[in-house]
Amino acid sequence: MGDKSVWDQEIAVPAAVIEYIDKGVKDKLPQGTQCHGITPSGASYWARTAKIDATNEHGENTPFFIKVHQTETGKEMASSEFEAMKLLRKVMPELVAEQIGWGLYLERPDTWFYLCRYCELSGDLPSLSKFPELLAEMHRRSAASPSAMGQGDLFGLDLVTYGGRNQHSFPPSPSWEEAFTRGLQKTFDMEEATQGPDPEMQRLRQSLMTKVIPRLLRPLETDGRTVTPTLVHGDLWDGNVSVDVYTGSPVIFDATPLYAHNEYELAPWWAPRHKMTGAYIDEYTKHYPISDPKEDFADRGALYGLKFDLHASSLYAGNLMHRDIVMDTMRRLLGKYHLGYEGYLEEQAGK
């Protein structure tokens, strides 16, 4: 989701919440579970995370992972993560740990948790030869099945998710252009609320909405072309995927899913600051073909990447690194596509 080097503030949730196993947590565990202890595990900049050592009714080791939040926002974060990961697991259980539940601590006020099966993660990047193929399979499966959220053939998702403490919201929409535009507008608003208004940023934003987005996204859904709503993880940078130590299989987590153009999933891989970059994109496109017009592929990736850079900027008041990246990207795209969709139509008519 962002650059770890700027995430240096103290975690707001006290460490005491993972020094014991609350009764509310125990009530959510499978019947017959015996708990044997809890230890810090994993890393989060917004919550406390831990491993619960446990055995099932047959005495077999069945550890669990817990993420603990506080405040009303924390409640929404716990519940939305449960729903988000459940949605992904329904489509691709090979990549997602089983969800157990979410709920309220009974012995501590205003404290909320999310529970899933525990996976011992290596911290390594997933296999270049296997992971893009599995991701492409997840996209194919979701595109071939009815919407699991009961929203028909709409883009977006009727579920607000969280990246850090800020929301991701893509209201269900009939076209991908509309869904992306509405989601990006909300992220621009959130970023401005954090960093304050900037006249050039506002000018670039307006031109992006009226020129660049129609130019790059409308051709996907015109001239007989269509985009199929595809379930995506929604924040698939290298901090949200790892490898199970015991099985060697990739595991994805911390999702902000929506039904999107499948190429939206690749946006973090275009950013040079991330570890999963062009090689993963190249491998993915061997298993899921690039959408037409193919010549727009890289610039669509840059456009989609604005959503992630804006969201990262919205998290840290006063740190303008990601805002600068956003503005540079917008300048480049506007320099190339200042004639908008109308220019594209004239270009096509002249061929």
Automatic annotation (TrEMBL):
Gene3D superfamilies named in the record: 3.90.1200.10
Protein name: protein-ribulosamine 3-kinase
Catalytic activity: N(6)-D-ribulosyl-L-lysyl-[protein] + ATP = N(6)-(3-O-phospho-D-ribulosyl)-L-lysyl-[protein] + ADP + H(+)
Protein EC: 2.7.1.172
Keywords: Kinase, Transferase
Pfam families, per the entry: Fructosamin_kin
Keyword tRNA processing: no
Single GO term (MF): kinase activity
UniProt key word Kinase: yes
InterPro entries membership: Fructo-/Ketosamine-3-kinase, Kinase-like_dom_sf
